[in-house]
Design a protein that fits this description.
Number of strands: 9
Largest sheet: 4 strands, antiparallel
Strand content: 25-35%
Number of helices: 5
Shape: globular
Structural class: alpha+beta
Distance between the termini: 40 Å
Strand order of the largest sheet: 7-6-8-9
């Protein structure tokens, strides 16, 4: 992903609470294509791209070697995703939704339910965890997909286990 973006740019990851329909994906892709081609910071064009991973996770990235995203430009991007969230009820801004990939399907586990999901074997140490807290392209390329055992979320499960 994002082969055309170099350097250590920024990335924003928005997991939806369900799989997007093909109609939704087409509409969102068209809007994000338009947004990326016109996105700027203080009048300077930003080199940006997007993807919809697993038909459910919206990801926007910008190459900051060319031009840095500023507060105002980031606000513009956030506004676009808020519009998607309002229009399609995706729950994109719920940071308590953790994402796993189980048999090529995204599974959302709420932070409050993570210990239980692990205890009953819904998720295991070798389950693929999508670390949606990453914010740089370099981290996205290296630690977005990792085993649950290697993740910050696994450490939370272990903390919950110790405090029980």
């Amino acid at each position: 992903m994002f082969q055309n973006l170099k350097g250590n740019g920024r990335v924003w990851i928005y997991p939806a609470n369900r799989v997007l329909t093909s109609t939704e994906q087409t509409a969102i892709s068209a809007e994000l294509q338009t947004f990326c081609s016109s996105w700027d910071a203080h009048g300077n064009s930003l080199t940006a791209d997007f993807t919809i991973a697993y038909n459910q996770i919206l990801i926007l990235a910008v190459d900051e070697d060319q031009e840095s995203a500023s507060g105002c430009s980031i606000d513009k991007a956030t506004a676009v995703f808020r519009q998607f969230d309002q229009k399609y009820a995706f729950d994109l801004f719920n940071r308590m939704n953790l994402t796993f990939v189980l048999k090529d399907v995204v599974k959302i586990v709420k932070m409050a339910e993570i210990k239980q999901a692990y205890s009953v074997g819904l998720i295991k140490e070798d389950s693929v965890f999508l670390n949606n807290t990453v914010s740089t392209l370099s981290d996205f390329r290296t630690i977005w997909k990792q085993s649950f055992k290697e993740s910050w979320a696994f450490r939370k499960v272990k903390q919950f286990a110790k405090s029980s």
